[in-house]
Amino acid sequence: MEYTVQKLGQMSGISPRTIRYYDEIGILKPARINSSGYRIYGQAEVDRLQQILFYRELDLSLETIKEIVSSPDFDEMRALREHRGKLLEKRKQLDLLIINVDKSIAVKEGRSTMSDKEKFEGFKQKLIDDNEEKYGKEIRAKFGNDAVNYSNQKVFNMTPEQYDEVTRLEQEVLETLYDAVETGDPAGELAQKAADLHRQWLSYFWSSYSKEAHIGVTQMYVDDERFKAYYDKNRPGAAAFLREAVRISTATIKCQNR
Amino acid sequence: MEYTVQKLGQMSGISPRTIRYYDEIGILKPARINSSGYRIYGQAEVDRLQQILFYRELDLSLETIKEIVSSPDFDEMRALREHRGKLLEKRKQLDLLIINVDKSIAVKEGRSTMSDKEKFEGFKQKLIDDNEEKYGKEIRAKFGNDAVNYSNQKVFNMTPEQYDEVTRLEQEVLETLYDAVETGDPAGELAQKAADLHRQWLSYFWSSYSKEAHIGVTQMYVDDERFKAYYDKNRPGAAAFLREAVRISTATIKCQNR
DNA sequence: TGTAAACCTTTACGCAACGGCAATATCAAG
DNA sequence: CTTGATATTGCCGTTGCGTAAAGGTTTACA
Q1: What are the residues whose beta carbons fall under 8 Å from the beta carbon of A52, sequence distance 6 or more?
Q2: Per-residue pLDDT tens digits for B63-114
Q3: Separation in Å, CA of B132 to nearest CA in chain A
Q4: What is the ipTM of this complex?
């Protein structure tokens, strides 16, 4: 089988332009060039392209990929591990960013009548007293060492009111759940209320809600002894009951959407 | 107070080049230009720069920042919320990426003697049978809906052996901890063993270990009723004891490093 | 007052990984 | 032979600056 740039592109889902670019940077050379100057690729090049795409999927740079696919004795493990480290670092940064954006949104929601100038007045004072470098440190000190994970930071950043609300919700979830377990019907009104309360409670810790994740976490309550013990303490089977209620709840929402 | 590019740069911690660039794209114009063509900035410009840096810290594009700081009636909330959505999306992608990289590393560790060609043989076959588009879908189906969160996926991706090891470790942590509580000395040998076992156990769920996060999570065991109940069930005070042991353990490691 | 250091200016290339367009050549079909 | 699809090279644009280069200005010190 021999392929031109477009054939190869269609097969692999990338553009002919990209294939030419890969030739240009020497990461994927054509098998040969025909009399009219067309690039012609063979099976070996298809294989190589698959490898390239695989590593590209892992978000490695083309430079790194080039080294991996070019020299078979390249220390690929090390490259992958280093890359993993970079990804983790990126994620930490992202988590911090998201928390900061959340904070900004909260501040703006709280006092939407303030003008931008006013809002930054306090912020600014500190900055000008010292310098920008200190500002950076301050932010980092405030939001904790970046090793602290996301949900921990969420809690640290809660206002006392939010914290009260969370603990109140937690109690309410339990009470409603226990009442619901008595009814024995995970599709019943009480059970559905418990599921919804639990959803609300979760929303305080999660940056975004999804049905799948909600089901996932309640499944974990059943699988993980620590959570199971907590929910089952007063009413055996409560963890499993909650999971069922949430399953039904999320399915019901789905039906309503149709 | 009047500032040249360098003065302003030192104050705010950014380079003169950046300041000139901000002038160029019209996001921060100097107050005036002196007879020698120097850019001169005043207090108003310092304020504006602080605003710009604030938004830049949230990773907004300079284009977006320009709109925010230029027009006071710009819908900033919407911009922030949209931006937040983008960040969350980015994080999901990153989580998937990290898991894929983890998988690749695991595969390579398992059969390090295989050549690249062999390793990709199976991978490749499927790809060539169908097309690249299907490949994309397959990856997504395999690694689950992207709403499922990172640690859940970690567990799903465990081998049965790993799973056994984790549950075994969990038991061992508890047993050692309970014995240690009896001794009453969180700096003692048993307590330190418990702390270390707990660290090992954690490592199965965390993508990276850090002392601060370890202390943080054991602190949470004390603060969160569910965790506290679990650890204190057989030996009241076990959660707090573990936290102390971990604190001492991490501090000790620090001393050894010196 | 001379001069060197430190500062300022504009212009312009470079970065990553392509997308998009232009000008031109080639191929297959009717 | 024309037409339309496809191929080629090459250059510009993207983001947010870093890093020169080539030159003018200010400041400090002998």
Answers
A1: A22, A27, A28, A65, A69
A2: 999 988 888 777 777 777 877 887 777 777 677 667 767 777 777 776 333 3
A3: 5
A4: 0.49
C-alpha span between B241 and B176 (Å, rounded) = 12
Amino acid letter, residue B44: A
For residues A54 and A28, what is the distance between their CA atoms, to the nearest angstrom? 14
B-chain residues within 8 Å CB-CB of A144? Answer: 212
What's the gap between Cα B248 and its chain centre? 25
The C-alpha angle B110, B113, B117, rounded to 5 degrees, equals 100
Q: Are A225 and B230 in contact (CB < 8 Å)?
A: yes
> How far is residue B194's CA from residue B23's CA, in Å, rounded to a whole number?
59
Q: In Å, what is the CA distance from B248 to each residue of B147, B177, B218? A: 38, 14, 12
Phi, psi of A216 (to 5 degrees): -60, -45
What whole-number distance in Å separates Cα of residue B3 and Cα of residue A148?
Answer: 39
Q: Domain limits of chain B? A: 5-70, 77-156, 160-257
Q: Which two tokens stand for residue A185?
A: 């019907």
The DSSP bridge pattern shows strands A32-33 and B32-33 to be unpaired
DSSP run (H or E) holding A39: strand A39-40
A chain contacts of residue B230, beta-carbon cutoff 8 Å: 225-226, 229-230
Tens of pLDDT along B35-61? 999 999 998 998 899 889 888 877 789
The third-level CATH classification (topology) of the domain covering A5-70 is Multidrug-efflux Transporter Regulator; Chain: A; Domain 2 (1.10.1660)
Pair A148, B215: CB distance under 8 Å: no
CATH architecture, domain B160-257: Orthogonal Bundle (1.10)
Q: Which nucleotides of chain C have an atom under 7 angstroms from any protein CB?
A: 7-11, 16-21, 25-27
| Chain B residues near residue A112 by CB distance under 8 angstroms | 77
**Distance (Å) from the C-alpha of residue B101 to the closest C-alpha of chain A?**
6
Residue in A with minimal Cα distance to B211: A147
> Pairing state of beta strands B39-40 and B32-33?
antiparallel
* CB spacing of A12 vs B132 below 8 angstroms: yes
Distances (CA, A) of A60 to A24, A46, B187, B243: 18, 19, 44, 39
Residue A92: closest CA among B254, B139, B62, B150: B150
Handedness of CA B146, B148, B153, B156 (dihedral sign): negative
CB A119 within 8 A of CB A107: yes
Residue B237's DSSP bridge partners are none
Shared fold status for B5-70 and B160-257: no
Please state, in angstroms and rounded to a whole number, the distance separating the CA atoms of residues A76 and A80: 6
Q: Given 3-state DSSP classes, what are the helix, strand and coil percentages for chain A, each rounded to the nearest 5?
A: 75, 0, 25
Q: B3 φ, ψ to 5°?
A: -130, 145
Tokens of B18: 């950046």
- Asked whether the predicted pLDDT for residue A138 surpasses 80, the reply is no
